Amino acid sequence: MRLQDELALLIRQEQTLQFKRFDENTAWQLGSALHERAVGEGWPLVIDIRRFERPLFFAARPGITPDNGEWVRRKVNTVQRFLRSSYRLTYQLAIEQQDIQQRYHLDPADYASCGGGFPLIVQGAGVIGSVTVSGLPDRQDHQLIVDALCDLLGHERAALSLPAETPF
Fold first, then answer.
1. Does the pTM exceed 0.90?
2. How far, in Å, CA of 19 to CA of 25, rounded?
3. Rounded Cα–Cα distance for residues 77 and 141 (Å)
4. Theoretical Cys-Cys bridge with 117: which of 36, 62, 75, 100, CB 3.0 to 4.6 Å?
5. Cβ proximity of 107 and 69 under 8 Å
6. pLDDT truncated to tens, each residue of the chain (168 aa)?
7. CATH fold group of domain 3-159
């Protein structure tokens, strides 16, 4: 798949994976599903779900490092700043052949254009927060979130899944 084709799929994921409402109970369901998957696979993972003004769910699995917490912080900043997935930003920058510092004059120590941060979008309200994971390769971090959102919102995973091979 070409960069532009995958970017179109990333945009379609965001247009499709939207909630009618999102509250603390929804955050718990989503966070628990991500955690159960990580436990089942034996993955070291940090999971962070938040409205931008406050945390709603946080879990850290055995094997994570302090770097994972920093990756989460940077991915959350990216989703909050751009109101899109951090992986979508990766593709947009790759197509422009720039990095986040060149294009937006942002410090990469505070922002990350890599997979693992996804906007929480409520229909009629827009982006209200983010779901973020760190611990796997960035494409897998992104797809893990998409799979969990598909399951929770009743969408077919296959229709919104990235191919296994990355164009990078």
1. yes
2. 13
3. 16
4. 75
5. no
6. 699 999 999 999 999 999 999 999 999 999 999 999 999 999 999 999 999 999 999 999 999 999 999 999 999 999 999 999 999 999 999 999 999 999 999 999 999 999 999 999 999 999 999 999 999 999 999 999 999 999 999 999 999 999 988 887
7. Beta-Lactamase (3.30.450)
